[in-house]
Amino acid sequence: MSFLLRLVLPDRPGTLGAVASALGQVGADIISVDVVERTPGIAVDDLVVELSDGRLPDALISAAHSVDGVWVESIRRYAGSLDTQRELELIEAMTGDPDRTVAILISGLPRIFRAGWSLLLQVSGDVAQVRAASDAAPEDIGATLSGMSLAPDPARMVDPTVDEVPESLRALDTELAVTSFGEGAVVLLGRPGGPVFRHGEIARLAHLVGIAGTITSGATRGVRRPQRQVP
After folding, report:
1. 3-class SS at 115?
2. pTM, to two decimals
3. 45-63: burial string, b at 16+ Cβ within 10 Å, e else
4. C-alpha angle with apex 84: 133 to 208, nearest 5 degrees?
5. pLDDT per position as a tens digit, 35-77
6. Structural domain count, the chain
7. Are 58 and 129 within one domain?
8. Last residue in a domain, options 77, 109, 130
């Protein structure tokens, strides 16, 4: 059984190795490690961990906390592909097929950020038109986004206490990030069940979306997905 652990840990040599050793003692193997954010003295890493059958996920938390200065920010079941797609690979794919840049971006963002879904929306007032959607994006778009603030500048985390996030997303504890993709267009990234988007992730999201916008030379050029209206 695979789990995604987000760890906050001291950014010093040997700490991640100590975590790996502690996890190994409870029958867990680290499958992959992603650097989420680095600040002076602190690191935030995402670990995909395979836990032996019959072991409880609480054992992962206890093992990680046994290393001095380490804190588990979140833990959740992980059913995604372990063959992760890096930013450079996504950029290469977009530049290699400019006509499909938008489709490649929107389908690739959830894998890079280990999120649930992403959408490209054309927004005008209270009306949003879906230009592209990843797998697992919300089906009932009208009910999901009606009345929700999608102001994208600067790229940011969506605050449910300010941005009128619909109850349907709050019920799933969906963390949201939004960034601009050309005039009137935004990319919305959803991560049901968390963890929250870190500032480093927001910066990476804005960077990737900006590159895609440059490649397409227009927010919606090259999109071939059928359009749906959001009331």
Report:
1. coil
2. 0.76
3. bbbbbebeeeeebebbbeb
4. 55
5. 888 889 999 999 999 988 778 889 999 999 999 999 999 998 8
6. 2
7. no
8. 77
